[in-house]
Amino acid sequence: MGGMMWVFAVFILSVYETWSLDTGSPQSTLMHNTSSSAPKVYVVRNASFILGSNVSLTCSNESASKIIYVLWNIKLKSGPCRIGHNNDGQSEDSCNDGKSLRNTSTTMYLHIPNFSNDDVGIYQCETVYTGGADTHNISVDIIAPPNISAWFEWKGNKMVAVCKAERGKPAANISWSHLENSSSPKTWLGSDGFFTVESRLELPENMDTKNLSCTIRHQYWEEEKTLVPKLKGQSGEHKGPNFTLIYILTVVISIAVLAGILFLAQKKLTILRCSKQADTSPSKPLPTAEDVEEVEPYASYVQRVNSIYNS
Q1: pTM for this predicted structure
Q2: How far apart are CA 299 and CA 211, in angstroms?
Q3: Are 219 and 144 in contact (CB under 8 A)?
């Protein structure tokens, strides 16, 4: 059985080496030829790290003094790069993003400072040491806590409770204290690589919402988080649809009454102004005797003159 497992491991390593050559990746100048009879170990594993943490990735348990060379081929979203070192003192680093090879008293490891979503990818490492070689293929992912919130909102004439976990990785899990009328949570992946999960619960009419809550679980937290939804814009308990309708009607009626008062006041002010202008306008005077004499006909004037001369 052990012999069969060993043959299988050698076969997997051969396939991996053939795949590496087929991809056209250039061979590093750090590599040394190793004896084909040396034992080889091929390991595939997954690893997740917390956002902002300092990460150490190991590729072999052999002591640094026995290592001939170590080479990391890294495939990130931004593109491939590699970091390596050999016992002749040669090094290479095409990543140039803070990653580095470090030694301890027991082994050599890859150091990734302030781990972020940009560091997520496939880390392929080959370590050759005295008496053997180790090859590791590590899928590296991130653990980031989501931003959580819960609230009530209206959908037509029905109240809906919403619970949301935004920009987390991996996706969060949401459940309700009341399971009736709850829809399946919707999950979508953002362009930044983080997940958002939203769950909606349609509430029956006249339901008491005081004891309603949603529970959010995530790998980042040791304990689950529980939220009690609140109506948007209110810090107290939900007042219900009747209160909202009365409030809206009160506002509308108040505005209508105020507009009517302003209209009547404006109309009365206009009437008063017109009346005042009529009282202060000067009346046309009656004609006097002198005015009548001034407009006396010419024939009467001639007759009067003649009577003076004939006397």
Answers
A1: 0.59
A2: 114
A3: no
